[in-house]
Amino acid sequence: MLWSDPEDEPPKDLRDMQDMLRRLGLLIALAMVLIMIVTGLR
Predict the structure, then answer these.
(1) Where does 1-42 show beta strands of DSSP type E?
(2) DSSP conformational letter for 42
(3) Alpha carbon distance 25, 23 (integer Å)
(4) Angstrom distance (rounded) from CA 11 to CA 29
């Protein structure tokens, strides 16, 4: 990669959407774990 190459930084809205999707994935994973624990206790 040359120093004259443009930065490979995605636009701000794309980064925001990626952050939101990452948070949503974490929430879904936590919810699945909670559901498994609750169903396992019954």
Answers:
(1) none
(2) -
(3) 5
(4) 27
Residue carrying the six token digits 């994973």? 29
pTM equals: 0.62
Structure tokens at 15: 């980064």
Q: What's the pLDDT tens digit per position in 2-32?
A: 667 677 777 889 999 999 999 999 999 999 9
Place of tokens 């490979």: 8
What is the full DSSP assignment across 1-42?
A: --TTSPP-PPPHHHHHHHHHHHHHHHHHHHHHHHHHHHHHH-
